[in-house]
């Protein structure tokens, strides 16, 4: 299944299990730290609601008392009061809108911070099955769905609620019978809202999932644009993206179709309510049981009565979209984080670099072992090379040392202590890793070299770069060490990026060094250049070197040949050649291939 489609399938299954009311309670709980600001907004809302309720009453007074009696002075006073009431209501409305909007933005700020913190706490296994694009969609797009609700929707909803309460009270005080007639259609409106609620909830859930799929697909296409152009896959990729894009379009069209039918339904009910008031109110006026002024006031009240309900309907649409986004956000926040350090965990200090694998088993998925019975020891200052076919388990062995994953069986010890009994921070501070594809961050070259050694002096940075044979090319850059790198360091060559990564590892001065195909992306000439630097880097450190180029590990103290998750052969380069086994066969083929390439 393609990445985007997989996200849709996973998201659909994920969202079906969500509790909407629980999600809403959690979302409202995000507002709890801002109680004082919300109380002020509530007071302002009440002021606005009182103004909304008083306005029509003053209009009826002006018609029935001032105009009927031709009292110009009294009319002026009433109109002055009306202007004052509406003025205060407008000011209060403006102030509470600002207040709630400011609170909403703070909630969004906290939500994004929580998501990023959650990403940092999750185990690496979580990211193995998720696309970067979908995760970015959750922290950007899904959080943005909360923006309109928290910044405007809540204001409209609360304003409508308090305004509605004020209107109901005023209508009942003026004329109970006409008020009750006006309320006849409220159950119809509630049933209509309930009917559309289920439809909109499903529709907006699907829109959030498809947005994540589109983002994931787009991220993949942009990241792999060079490969797409190199293999002439542009048209195929466009068609593939159009499928995800069309699914997102269809989901949004479906959501719009439902919401666009909802608003007219509410309008029809509102119009019927106005007709009822005019008909019954006119009958009361004809019988002398109601004044024209009160009928006019009731008509205004009815319009105001249904307007909050209409606004609530609009906010309800926002709420469904926001809840769909919130469900995806809380799905991340509810993921099981990386297991915390044991309460009795020790801090690794002054590490000697001794690493022991004692019958280690490991599986990414329970029941599907990747490593079985791995047993070897790295003495301090010793270099151990891992070789073998792709997928044999070499990188899995290396990833267990810093506890990126936990062993499934056996024990892995550093300086005689099981790594599960050490704090992750102290363990990882003693380790430096140079992967096959080193990631460079936005910032200067110097910042990237000093990434693992915060506060390093420029002299230390330059010394590390010299040791990694990177100083010459760095000084040739436009701003030298202060040259800003593009995303992923794309303005450097692949070999240069790897040299910067070597310099970063040298500056970190680890006791344990892991090189995972670290020279595979460096050309042969550059590789020879950094061999001397590597000799300095490896000296006195316990090192694990994974390499396909066997010429780079002939001097290793111990070579382990890994196949199908097990150690098949072990020994020095010379000993393994004499055994004539798998290593000798691999070396012979590679050496013969190099001779043929040279020829």
Task: Annotate the secondary structure layout.
Layout: H1 3-16, H2 20-29, H3 35-67, H4 72-121, H5 124-128, H6 132-174, H7 176-182, H8 186-223, H9 225-230, H10 234-286, H11 292-333, E1 355-362, E2 371-378, E3 383-387, H12 394-400, E4 409-414, E5 417-418, H13 424-429, E6 431-434, E7 443-444, H14 445-449, H15 458-467, H16 471-475, E8 484-485, H17 494-508, E9 512-516, H18 524-538, E10 542-546, E11 558-563, E12 566-571, H19 573-579, H20 582-598
Parallel strand pairs: 3-10, 3-11, 6-9, 9-10
Antiparallel strand pairs: 1-2, 1-4, 4-5, 7-8, 11-12
Helix pairs in contact: 1-8, 2-11, 3-4, 3-6, 3-11, 4-6, 6-7, 6-8, 6-11, 8-10, 8-11, 10-11, 15-17, 17-18, 19-20
